[in-house]
């Protein structure tokens, strides 16, 4: 007998908590603070749902879902507001490479040390 399984666990947005709460770290566009849930799907049909642990950010442009700690300050924040928002969110003015853990300036798309995409 042959069994063919099509399904898996997917992360979806349950509801929007705050619109425009930050910016996407990948593309820089507006991101919303959302509540997420995990969904078990069998043959593309949702079978079981359970809530996620922490709120996350969802990008309006690239539709990615990422932890709120990765979010950049909102686009409207400038000067002192931007530095205060960065300090309150725990972000430094430099990013860190995920691969080699070296500080990289925000304008770079690739790490200048190891070449990993940021």
UniProtKB/TrEMBL annotation:
Pfam families: Zn_ribbon_15 (PF17032). InterPro entries: Double_zinc_ribbon (IPR053281), Zinc_ribbon_15 (IPR031493). Residues 23-115 form the Zinc-ribbon domain. It comes from the Eukaryota. This is Zinc-ribbon 15 domain-containing protein. It comes from Spirodela intermedia (Intermediate duckweed).
């Amino acid at each position: 007998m042959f069994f063919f399984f099509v399904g898996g666990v997917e992360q979806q947005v349950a509801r929007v908590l705050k619109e425009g709460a930050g910016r996407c770290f990948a593309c820089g566009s507006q991101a919303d603070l959302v509540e997420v849930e995990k969904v078990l799907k069998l043959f593309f049909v949702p079978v079981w749902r359970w809530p996620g642990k922490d709120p996350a950010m969802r990008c309006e442009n690239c539709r990615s879902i990422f932890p709120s700690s990765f979010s950049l300050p909102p686009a409207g924040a400038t000067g002192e507001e931007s530095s205060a928002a960065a300090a309150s969110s725990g972000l430094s003015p430099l990013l860190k490479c995920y691969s080699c853990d070296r500080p990289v300036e925000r304008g770079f798309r690739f790490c200048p040390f190891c070449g990993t995409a940021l």
